[in-house]
């Protein structure tokens, strides 16, 4: 019996390893598939970072030639500052974050990091300088520890735990029987959207990049989770050049500048206070969101009273 068991056990192990690598490869292809056409030019240099200033100069971009998505967008995120992009759905907000990470090249204008055009630097050095917390994080079918350590392969257990704490995922880790050895399932399906996003934040804390792109999840999180994520994001963005792609206005109040994008153009820009005083698009978006929140609260209260 034992003679039969051992080879079967071995086969089982190989099967699990192959399945694991297939899922890792799948996750990798999902990332790579987004930008198959971008190649380093022959004269590229590694990015020389001085502070991490990001500058968009009259950027034009279209996914398909017959439909321009960004129609001349210019703004600067000074080193260490936070700029938030808001605007109606489909305005081109996430496209801006994809261009900064160079998933695509611009069709007009240029994007600079510390004065260097993205097309003149190696993609490897650019992506090493940028941490991205995307809307939907793809996790590897492995443990929580593996998924957090992905931010920096050599990180110690203590560093992983510290990053988890800053990202406010440590409470969740403690509540699971296997702690950091908890398997997250295929693509992280065993975790909620908020938990996955906090794993992505912990990863970014370990990576420690000078530039951050935070692409907020569109899906509504409960207000407690949202608050926790917001706190974690505020901590991670401290002292880093941060571009926030915001779907909820409550998260942008403290930004150094808010850019209101409408159909690929900047319609308004300023601080929260300045934009509210203008009584324009930002002000009406804010009022609409407040009304929706109030309606949700009334419904919730009515549900609880029943
Ligand atoms: P939301 O708030 O709904 O996330 P957004 O402002 O972030 O919207 P983008 O994701 O930047 O909008 O998309 C801008 C426009 O580009 C949309 O009309 C979208 O349909 C289109 N678009 C996005 N990705 C692609 C793509 N890969 N190919 C073609 N069109 C695309």
Task: Explain what the structure shows.
The protein is of the alpha/beta class and 306 residues long. It contains 10 helices and 10 strands. The strands form 2 sheets. The chain has a 6-stranded mixed beta sheet with strand order 6-7-8-3-9-10. A 4-stranded antiparallel beta sheet has the order 2-1-4-5, with helices on one face. Helix 5 packs across helix 7 (193-207) and helix 7 (193-207) packs parallel to helix 8 (223-237). The protein is globular and about 65 Å long. The N and C termini lie far apart (62 Å). The mean pLDDT is 85. Adenosine-5'-triphosphate (ATP) is lined by residues 63-64, 69, 87, 89-95, 218, 247.
Give me the secondary-structure category. Answer: alpha/beta
- The rough form would be described as globular
Strand order of the largest sheet: 6-7-8-3-9-10
Q: Radius of gyration in whole Å, from Cα?
A: 22 Å
Alpha carbon gap, first and last residue: 62 Å
Helix content: 40-55%
Main sheet specs: 6 strands, mixed
Mean residue pLDDT: 85
Number of DSSP strand runs: 10
Instruction: List ligands, each type once.
Output: adenosine-5'-triphosphate
Return residue spans where pLDDT drops below 50 for at least 5 consecutive residues: none
Give the ordered list of helices and strands.
Answer: HEEEHEEHEHHHHEHEEEHH
Quickly count the helices.
Answer: 10
């Amino acid at each position: 019996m034992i003679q039969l068991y051992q080879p079967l056990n071995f086969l089982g192990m190989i099967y699990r390893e192959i399945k694991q690598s297939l899922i890792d490869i799948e996750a990798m292809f999902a990332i790579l598939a987004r930008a198959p056409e971008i190649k380093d030019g022959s004269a590229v240099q590694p990015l020389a970072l001085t502070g991490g200033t990001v500058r968009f100069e009259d950027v034009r971009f279209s996914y398909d030639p017959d439909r321009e998505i960004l129609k001349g967008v210019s703004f600067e995120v000074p080193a260490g500052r936070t700029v938030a992009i808001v605007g109606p759905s489909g305005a081109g907000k996430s496209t801006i974050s994809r261009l900064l990470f160079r998933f695509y090249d611009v069709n007009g204008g240029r994007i600079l990091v510390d004065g260097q055009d993205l097309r003149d630097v190696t993609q490897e050095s650019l992506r090493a300088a940028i941490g991205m917390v995307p809307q939907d994080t793809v996790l590897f079918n492995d443990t929580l520890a593996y998924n957090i350590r992905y931010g920096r392969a050599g990180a110690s257990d203590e560093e992983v735990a510290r990053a988890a704490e800053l990202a406010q995922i440590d409470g969740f880790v403690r509540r699971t029987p296997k702690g950091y050895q908890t398997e997250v399932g295929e693509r992280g399906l065993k975790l909620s959207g908020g938990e996955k996003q906090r794993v992505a934040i912990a990863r970014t804390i370990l990576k420690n990049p000078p530039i951050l792109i935070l692409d907020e999840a569109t899906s509504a999180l409960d207000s407690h989770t949202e608050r926790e994520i917001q706190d974690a994001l505020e901590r991670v963005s401290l002292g880093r050049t941060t571009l926030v792609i915001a779907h909820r206005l409550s998260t942008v109040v403290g930004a150094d500048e808010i850019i209101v994008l409408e159909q690929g153009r900047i319609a308004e820009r300023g601080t929260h206070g300045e934009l509210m005083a203008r009584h324009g698009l930002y002000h009406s978006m804010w009022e609409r969101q407040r009304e929706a929140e109030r309606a949700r609260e009334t419904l919730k209260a009515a549900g609880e009273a029943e």
